[in-house]
Design brief:
about 160 residues, Aminopeptidase, single chain, alpha+beta
């Protein structure tokens, strides 16, 4: 398996993995994947894919938390792994590389919002140095149900 920069040509595979997460019901509040243009604009830098056997099997990306200069080193992470490729360390490789890349780019704080029911994602983030900082109760609605979100963050020991 290799981890490399996500390219525009990877979008169909990235979108398919994102749509699997949407269908699973515990990855996002989104109900459909955005267009490439929307996704690209929301994730302007620091985006990776994991490739195994010539196929994209996962992706990770960082979104700036705010356009304000004071928050230039704070970003929100997203990590998705194809259903058929879960449980073998792909998410850990992706998130680990994203953390390294974020520090190289000057990020001092990474955040993540994870549904409490998504225990594999919570374990992954904790394994990569994230800590729980709170529970946002009934923060959003999904399929007619108000959902909680566990708020996690990782502070760099190298930057900030």
């Amino acid at each position: 398996m290799t981890v490399r920069a996500l390219l525009a040509d990877d979008w169909s595979a990235v979108r398919a993995i994102y749509e699997e997460g949407i269908r699973g019901g515990n990855a996002t509040f989104e109900t459909e994947a955005p267009s490439w243009q929307e996704w690209d604009a929301a994730h302007p830098a620091l985006r990776l894919v994991a490739e195994r056997g010539g196929s994209v099997v996962g992706w990770a990306a960082l979104s700036p938390s705010s356009p304000r200069r004071c928050y230039r080193g704070v970003g929100a992470v997203s990590v998705y792994v194809a259903e058929a490729a879960r449980g073998v360390g792909i998410g850990r490789r992706l998130l680990g590389r994203l953390v390294e890349s974020s520090e190289d780019a000057g990020y001092w704080t990474l955040t993540a919002g994870v549904f409490p029911e998504n225990e594999p994602s919570l374990r992954l983030h904790r394994a990569c140095g994230f800590r729980e900082v709170g529970l946002r109760e009934r923060v959003g609605e999904s399929g007619g149900v108000w959902r909680d979100v566990v708020w996690l963050e990782r502070r760099s020991e190298l930057v900030g």
